[in-house]
Amino acid sequence: MTKVEPVTPVESAEPARAGRSRRRRIASLGVLVAALGTIATLYAGLAPAASSASNNDPAIQAGRQLFLQGCSTCHGLNAEGGARAPSLIGVGAAAVDFQVGTGRMPAQAHGPEMPRKRPVYDETQIQELATYVASLGAGPAIPTNLDYQSADVAYGGALFRTNCAQCHNFAGSGGALTYGKYAPSLSDATPRQIYEAMITGPENMPVFGDKQITPPEKLAIIDYVKTIKAEPNPGGAGLGRVGPVTETAVSWLVGIGGLVIITMWIGSKA
Amino acid sequence: MPPPRKRVGRRPTDDNPATVERASDQHILEQTAETEEEERFAELQVAALFLVGTAMLIFFIVAYFAISIRDNLGQYSNYALGGSLALALFAIGGGFIVWAKKLLPHEKAIQDRHDFHSPEAEEIEAENTFLAGVDDMGLGKHKILRRSLLGALGLFPLPLVIMLRDLGPLPHRSLLRTGWRAGVRLVDLDTRLPIKLGTVEIGGLVTVMPEGFTDVDEDALAPSMLIRFGPGQIMSKKEREWGVADHVVYSKICTHAGCPISLLEQQTHHLLCPCHQSTFDMVNDAKVIFGPAARPLPQLRIGLDSEGYFIAKGPYSQAVGPSFWERR
User: What is the average per-residue pLDDT within B82-109?
Assistant: First the structure.
C-alpha cells in the first residue's frame, strides 16, 4: 500500500492534499489490521499448538481435576509441594503409578511411613493422574516390559541380597528402619510396582536407576521376589519368614509355655 | 583303735536317731469318682481320647502312603505326618492322665522326713581311718615326695595356658589393610563393572569393591558404599571435598560389631545398622546419632580417572570395621 505514494508525486491542490492524507490514514489503518491479523493467526496457529498437547489432552485435564480434588491440599495447586508434601514436578508417571496404585497416596494421615492400603482410584484414574504429573516435568515412565519369567533368578537373588535384603529381609518380608519408618513386605507388590519402586525410590528407599541396575537385572530381581513368594514352607508355618527371632519366640512362648500349663494341670489335685 | 583326735566332716549330733520318735506313715485312701454316673462319664472320656489316638495313628499310616513327598517340597506330607503323630500322642497321653485323675483311687501318703546318717560308731571309725591314712603318707617326713608332688601339680596349669597361643596368630597390620589403593577403580560388587559419573541416580547407593577383587571374603573389610546425594545436601565440607560431585564413598562395615550395613534412608540421610541399630548421619561425616557404635564410618577419598570412572585416591585413612586395641 505504501507503493501508492510514489505513483502520485505532483499534486499540490488543497482538495488533493486532503484526499491524500485521508488515503494515508486508511493505509495505516490497513497496515495495523493486517499486522494484528497476522499476529492473531500466528498466535492461533503456533502458540496454542505447543500448549494444546498439555492443556487440551483429555487425560491430562481429567488428571488435573483429580489432582486438584485429591492431592493439591498437600502437594499444592500446581504440584509445587509445600511444608507437608514434596514437589511432584519431575517425579514422573512411574512414581504416581506406584504411590497411588499401592494405595499409599492419597495419604490418610501424616506419619513416619505411608502404609500400603486399598487404592482409592481405579486404574484409569491412576493413569490420568500419572499423565498429568508426567506432563509437569520429565521423570521415569511407567515400565512396560515386565516379562520377568525368563530372567536369571539366581542372579536376581544375588542382586537382591546385595541391594535389597538389608532393608526388605532376605525373603522380602520387610523390616524396621529408624524412628517408626519401615521397609514394607514385598509379598503384595506386583512386578510393575517393584520395578517402579526401584526406579523412583519411594519414601526412604534409595533410587536404583537403569544404569546402575539394568532393566534385565531388575527383571531378575522381580523374578527372585516372585519365586521366593511362591516357595512352599515345607517345615510348617513360615512365621513371616523373618528368621530365627519369631521361631524362637514361638517355641519359647507357645511351646514351653504350653508344656508348663499342661504340667501344672497334671500336677494339680483332681 | 586310737581315740579320736578331732572331728572331720561330721555334723554335731545331739539327736540320736534311735531316741527320735518315728512318726508312723499315714495312708489315706480317697475315692475319686463319687457316683456311678461320674465314673461312667470319666470312663467314656478316657475311651474317647484313646479312640482319637487310634484314629490319628491310622491316619498317620494312611497319610504316609497316600500323600506324596514330592508335592510342594513335601509340605503336605510333613503337615499330615507331624500333625497326626502329635495328636495321637497327645490323645493317648491325655487318656492316661484323665484315667489317673478321675478313675484311679487317690492314695495320700504322709511320711515325715528323717535324717539319713550312719550310726555314730561308724562315723567315728571312718574318720579315724582317714586321719590314720594322712599320717601314714608321712608328707612331713619325706621332703622329696612333697617337693616333687608340688612341682608336678604346679606345672599342671601350664599346658592349658600354652594352648591359648592357638587363639593367634596376631593379625598385625592385616586389620588396617584393604584392597583400596590410590588409582584403583570402584567396581559394582555383583556386576564387577567400573562405575562412571552419572551411573548412579540422585538418592542411589551402590555397593562397591576395589577393581580386581577375587572374593568378598578375601577382602572382607573392603566393601564400601558409593552414595549420590542431591546437590547441596551434604553438610560437611570435608565430606564434599573427599567426594566427587555429590558422590561419596563410605565403608560398609559397621564400626560397632562389623555387620555389613546399607540401610540408607534416602530422605533423612540416615544409615541404619540392622544388627544393633547404630545410626549414622550420612551427610555429616557419617556421625553416629544413635546406637552403640563409637565412631563414624570411615570415608574413602575418591576422584575420577581420565575415562570418567570413579577411582580411590588412596587407602582408607583409618582402620575400617570394629574397634580394636591398636587401632589408630
Answer: 90
Residue A140's closest chain B neighbor by CA?
Answer: B201
Express each pLDDT in A187-235 by its tens digit: 999 999 999 999 999 999 999 999 999 999 999 999 999 999 888 888 7
* A148-194 pLDDT tens trace: 988 999 999 999 999 999 999 988 988 889 889 999 999 999 999 99
Residue of B188, B189, B204 with shortest CB distance to A209:
B204
CATH fold, domain B186-312, is: Rieske Iron-sulfur Protein (2.102.10)
Answer yes or no: are the C-beta atoms of A181 and B265 closer than 8 Å. Answer: yes
> Which of A177, A212, A234 comes nearest B199 by C-beta?
A212
Pairing of strands B106-110, B186-188: unpaired
Nearest CA-CA distance, residue A210 and chain B, Å: 8
Distance from CA of A175 to the nearest CA of B (A): 9
- Taking the Cβ of residue A180 and every Cβ of chain B, the question of whether any pair is shorter than 8 Å is answered with no
Q: Are both A55-136 and A153-243 of the same fold?
A: yes
Band (B32; pLDDT cuts 50, 70, 90) = low
Cα separation, B205 vs A163, in Å, equals 8
Residue A42 pLDDT: 58
Question: Domain locations in chain A?
Answer: 55-136, 153-243
DSSP B118-137: --HHHHHHHHHHHHHHHHHH
Annotated domain spans of chain B: 26-110, 186-312
Q: Are the beta carbons of B78 and A234 separated by less than 8 Å? A: yes
Q: Which CATH architecture has domain A153-243?
A: Orthogonal Bundle (1.10)
CB-based contact A212 B204, cutoff 8 Å: yes
- In the numeric block, which cell numbers belong to residue B230? 542431591
Residues 6+ apart with CB under 8 A from A268: none
What is the nearest CA distance from A164 to chain B, expressed in angstroms? 9
A55-136: which CATH architecture? Orthogonal Bundle (1.10)
Q: Which residue would you say has higher pLDDT here, B253 or B143?
A: B253
Quick count: other Cβ atoms within 10 Å of Cβ A179?
Answer: 13
- State how far Cα B199 lies from the chain centre: 42
State whether residue A178 sits within 8 Å of chain B by CB.
yes
Whether chain B has a CB inside 8 Å of the CB on A233: the answer is: yes
Instruction: State the pLDDT confidence band at B117, using cuts at 50, 70 and 90.
Output: confident
Residue B301 has pLDDT above 80, yes or no: yes
Residues from chain A contacting residue B206 (CB–CB below 8 Å): 212
pLDDT exceeds cutoff 70 at A60: yes
Q: Do A204 and B267 touch (CB under 8 A)?
A: yes
Do residues A231 and A182 lie in contact, with contact meaning Cβ atoms separated by under 8 Å?
no
Contact check, Cβ <8 Å, B73/A162? no
ipTM (interface pTM): 0.70
To the nearest whole Å, the CA of A51 is away from the closest chain B CA by 30
Is the Cβ–Cβ distance between B195 and B226 less than 8 Å? yes
